[in-house]
From TrEMBL:
Residue ranges of every copy of the F-box associated beta-propeller type domain listed in the record: 26-270
Protein name, UniProt field: F-box associated beta-propeller type 3 domain-containing protein
Length: 311
């Protein structure tokens, strides 16, 4: 399933019903109470039936749409090197990477934020990662890096690690940055040697079949996809296909892939206003519209689970 949120409403879309051409795949609107102010609510991520929601300046909730349960997350502590004063500085700027994941080894949910600070007195930008443990109800910080990472993406959980596409200004190139949940350490995975990405065009990570995947749009409206056949082995990157521009240029202008089906079809969003199914030749097989306005959208697994510790 996936959950979509426009400025004023939420709705749930049943993927299986959508794939089976069920016209009732979009559910009725669901409600969530949020402290009122003038800022919209943003979906930060989803994990095992829980949604992470954020509203500026400093309101963050974990929410289970199936049970109605919600829990507010406290503000991260600051140290002397940081100038942020609210959660909006963590979640709402271009230069932050974030994630919401379940750590199976510790039976815990983690809210992860990677930001950067300027060191004193040399004025060098470095990145630091903090995570909030739902089980321990506290923020922790891991050892920082010697350089900065920039990005604005929700992390992708794959093979026990959170992955982001991030820009390293010291190298002037993009890398895949990952946070290992077991070791609590950051590591990098290089992009394919022949992968080319125009910096202002959309791009992202996804899981294609059983592999870590990469996709990017180009100025000619094509969508290029790669998979890593052997995890962490750079030479195993393989270009799977290039979705060609078809008779509907708006399709590829606004299309972003989410996942692939067992038979190789690709499910994606149309700028958060609907779902689209394509075959591997880029032909549109199906479309389902659920909003007339731009919406946040996230994959969601319906669950009646509670948070660790009986919360």
């Amino acid at each position: 399933m996936c959950i979509s949120k426009s400025r004023t409403q939420y709705c749930i879309i049943d993927f299986e019903a959508f794939l089976n051409y069920d016209p009732h795949s979009v559910s009725l609107n669901i409600n969530f109470w949020f402290p009122q102010n003038d800022f919209p609510v943003k979906i930060i991520g989803s994990c095992k039936g829980f949604i992470l929601l954020f509203r500026r300046p400093d309101i963050v909730y974990i929410w289970n749409p199936s049970t109605g349960f919600k829990k507010q997350i406290p503000l991260p502590p600051l140290d002397d090197s940081e100038s942020v004063t609210s959660l909006s500085d963590h979640f709402d700027h271009y230069d932050k990477l974030y994630g919401f994941v379940y750590d199976q080894a510790s039976d815990d949910y983690l809210v992860v934020i990677l930001s950067h600070v300027m060191t004193e007195p040399d004025g060098i930008l470095v990145s630091k990662l903090k995570f909030f443990s739902i089980r321990d109800n506290r923020w922790e910080e891991i050892e920082g890096t010697n350089f900065a990472y920039f990005g604005d993406q929700e992390g992708l959980l794959f093979n026990g690690a959170i992955h982001w596409l991030a820009f390293r200004p010291d190298l002037e190139r993009y890398v895949i940055l990952a946070f290992d949940l077991m070791d609590r350490k950051l590591f990098e995975i290089p992009l394919p040697d022949y992968f080319h990405h125009e910096s202002i065009m959309p791009y992202g990570l996804w899981v294609f079949g059983e592999f870590l995947g990469l996709w990017a749009k180009h100025y000619d409206s094509t969508v290029e996809t790669w998979v890593m056949k052997e995890y962490k082995l750079n030479s195993s990157w393989t270009k799977t296909f290039v979705l060609p521009r078809n008779s509907n240029p708006n399709l590829y202008l606004y299309f972003s892939p989410i996942f692939s089906t067992d038979n190789g079809d690709i499910i994606g969003t149309m700028r958060g206003t609907g779902l689209v199914k394509l075959n591997d030749k880029g032909q549109q097989l199906q479309h389902c519209s659920f909003s007339n306005s731009l919406s946040d959208i996230v994959v969601y697994t319906k669950s009646l689970l509670s948070l660790p510790g009986g919360q």
